[in-house]
Amino acid sequence: MKLNLFGSFWFWDFFNQAPARPPEAPLGDRLAILDRHKKNVFHMAQRTQLDDSSHPLHEAYACLLANGLDGAGEALRILVNEASRIERAQHLQATPYERSAQRVDYANGYKNKTVLTRLGEVTFEVPQVRSGGFYPSALERGSRSEQAMNLALAEMYVQGVSTRKVIEVLQKLVGPEVSISSTQISRCTALLDTGLQAWRNRPLDETPYVILDARYERVREAGRVVDCAVLVAIGVTASGHRRVLGVSVALSEAEVHWRAFLDSLIERGLRGVKFIASDDHAGLKAARKALFPGVPWQRCQFHLQHNAQGYVSRLDQRTPVARQIRAIFNASDANEAQRLLNVALKNWQVSHPQLATWAEKNLAEGFAVFDLPEAHRVRMRTTNGLERLNKELKRRTRVATLFPNPDSCLRLISALLSEQDEEWMTAKIYLTMKS
Question: Which residues pair with 218 in a beta bridge?
Fold first, then answer.
């Protein structure tokens, strides 16, 4: 095998990131040094009783000399494999086929392991021992790096980074030929499942105020694309902190799905509920009445005011009507609110009869908040806090466009909500609950 004088220097430069190749020596000096280098290799081979052409170090040299930097991955594979074999021999306290009283176990072949490195994917031969308990330290470090990269991909996905941007980052880290699909990124996020499931099933405690709402995400289910309901519950605990109580992904907002979701909250320890705020969805209303009978219900005042606009035919009258409804909701107590509503109804029966009929039946459902302490009313009279959270979820999930299955949707939503829950629990109290 022909040896290039500077092959070893190139090998050292590459793996230690030296700034540059050593300068060329004069031709006569290079030939003289090359001759001495060949003699040294010959004597080393004689001392180690190894054939020069079969030594792993020389194989790595040959790979680099033949392929340049394109052979760096193969050179790395050769050297790590040899280092792993040497480490196994040290673990066994005996070389292959050696009879030794100090031997603690026997070699048991190899298993392949593919690792994504900065040189691309490299498949290593992992030495095995009969009794187990041995793993090469070099590949353990590689495993941690691989896991770190997968977790980084998961984190980028959770933070709303698009697949295209993820690929750009990887190309800078690993190389221009790397590619990764949306499915691979979703697979990486499966690493989060264990922790997220534990968070979704964590015990709950006394929670006087509960707010419920739902939003929709496009999900592929049974070969077709459907809009799945993301059911979310937040609350204010006895300590005055906000918390994300739970989340579920269901096929719709039907009563059966809301009931199953609320049942799961109760099973986890939700108790002491004194007030529930939500929108007027039929399935949610039925489930709430079945599982929390007698608990005061506050219909979101913001949605009530928005819905009222649909019963005002003239555009120039919508602002005065909205002003009247705000005055009702801003009343000092329930009696004053009812008085203002009665006055408004008399006026609307003449100018907006459809609005009067609707308001008489519905607006009073926004009065439950008057039974709360005055300092709590502004924050509990609407579901706006949860609406803002849902808008943030929408912004972060927009990059997904279409979830491949309900589990992937639940995974991402859970990750985002768990972060918000942690932030709320470490922040200042939301409401002072002590009377």
Answer: 227
> Residue 391 — pLDDT band, cuts 50, 70, 90?
confident
Q: CB-based contacts of 67: which residues, under 8 Å, 6+ apart? A: 74
Write out the two tokens for 171.
């190309």
Phi, psi (degrees; rounded to nearest 5) at 248: -150, 150
Q: Which residues contact 258 (CB under 8 A, 6 or more apart)?
A: 212, 231, 281, 283, 284, 286, 287, 288
Is pLDDT at 27 greater than 80 in this prediction? no
Lowest mean pLDDT of 171-180, 197-206, 296-305, name the range: 171-180
Closest Cα partner for 358 from 288, 313, 292, 310?
310
CB crowding 68-102: b at 16 or more within 10 Å, else e? eeebbbbbbbbbbbbebbebbeebbebeeeeeeee
Bridge-based pairing of strands 120-129 and 209-221 is: unpaired
Distance CA(362)–CA(385), nearest Å, equals 22
User: What is the C-alpha to C-alpha distance for residues 337 and 358, in angstroms, rounded to an integer?
Assistant: 17
pTM: 0.61
Contact by Cβ (8 Å): 253, 284: yes
CA–CA–CA angle 391, 218, 383 (5° rounding): 30
Closest CA to 295 of 195, 379, 371: 371
- What percentage of the chain exceeds 90 in pLDDT? 38
User: pLDDT at position 321, please?
Assistant: 92
Query: What pLDDT, in 10s, does the model give residues 306-349?
Result: 999 989 888 888 899 999 999 999 999 999 999 999 999 999 99
Cα separation, 378 vs 391, in Å, equals: 20
Is residue 228 classed as helix, strand or coil in its secondary structure? strand
CA dist., res. 100 & res. 92, Å (int): 10
- Mean residue pLDDT of the chain comes to 79
Cβ burial, residue 21 (10 Å; 0-12/13-18/19+): exposed
CA distance 92 to 250: 55
- pLDDT band of 402, cuts 50, 70, 90: confident
Q: How do the domains of the chain map onto residue ranges?
A: 7-112, 205-294+403-435, 301-382
Nearest to 328 by CA among 297, 284, 365: 365
Structural fold of domain 205-294+403-435: Nucleotidyltransferase; domain 5 (3.30.420)
Backbone angles phi, psi at 429, to 5 degrees: -65, 145
